[in-house]
Amino acid sequence: MHGICHFEIPSTDIGKSREFYSGLFGWEFQAEGDPDYAMFSAPDGPGGGIEKASPGRGAHVNIYIEVKDIAATLAEAAKLGGKVVKGKTLINEEFGYWAMVSDPSGVNIGLWSRK
Fold it and tell me: What is the pLDDT of residues 24-77, one digit of tens each?
């Protein structure tokens, strides 16, 4: 627990990014569903997603840390000088929940938990 469990890479062309990362690293992508998001698994590490880049957001990778209790982690982050960027949010029953905090320097870190 508390290790990197998921990361997301922004892309202006998800199809080209799928082809690039699949060819370069051997990442296996799930069947197409959402045209703005593509999930992948990596052979030796955490999987992630390629997400449609938002205008003005900049090019940065989102990293998610697995935690036992998102609500408790959000409260602890606030006590330590961080801020809640996105509260506990259901992805779906299969994948669990996510949230986003920023550290005292303003760097965003995602949180993930099954419950």
Answer: 889 999 987 789 999 999 888 899 999 998 877 667 899 999 999 999 999 999
| Contact indicator for 38, 50 with CB cutoff of 8 Å | yes
Question: pTM for the full model?
Answer: 0.81
Domains of the chain in start order, with CATH, are 7-57 (3.10.180.10), 67-115 (3.10.180.10)
